[in-house]
Amino acid sequence: MLYHKEIQSEKELLEVYPIMKQLRPHLDEAAFLTLTDKARKSEHYKLFALYNDDVPVALAGFLPRVSLSQGIHVWVADLVTCEKHRSKGYGKRLLTAVEEWSREHGCGSVALSSGTGRRDAHRFYEEKMNYKKASYLYRKPLA
């Protein structure tokens, strides 16, 4: 049975960490716990997990935001399906849950960025989820 829920406890975070590690390999468990806690407190970060028969198979981390360019919206910061569970519709199901949460909380859109080399992800967003490429994301390290 498929269902999703918000991950809240440290125990739940540790349970889903191996999946997040596939998307964010630079994070060890301690950094994952610390950054998740800070993001929740400062930016109202939410982490949803999709479960198949009580086994986590996909994660979506997102933040409600307000900007002059996008109004009230949700920014998807993290979206990953476990490598051994890809191409089963889990990412679509979880991103749809994020969209539903966004509507219920008065958001007018959902936005995300995807690394330039992630062609399969781009195809998924554009062809399966009907997202439109809206901009380029630029980054400058400050250290």
TrEMBL record:
<keyword id="KW-0012">Acyltransferase</keyword>
<dbReference type="InterPro" id="IPR016181">
    <property type="entry name" value="Acyl_CoA_acyltransferase"/>
</dbReference>
<dbReference type="InterPro" id="IPR000182">
    <property type="entry name" value="GNAT_dom"/>
</dbReference>
<dbReference type="GO" id="GO:0016746">
    <property type="term" value="F:acyltransferase activity"/>
</dbReference>
<feature type="domain" description="N-acetyltransferase">
    <location>
        <begin position="1"/>
        <end position="143"/>
    </location>
</feature>
<dbReference type="Pfam" id="PF00583">
    <property type="entry name" value="Acetyltransf_1"/>
</dbReference>
<keyword id="KW-0808">Transferase</keyword>
<dbReference type="InterPro" id="IPR050680">
    <property type="entry name" value="YpeA/RimI_acetyltransf"/>
</dbReference>
<protein>
    <submittedName>
        <fullName>N-acetyltransferase YhdJ</fullName>
        <ecNumber>2.3.1.-</ecNumber>
    </submittedName>
</protein>
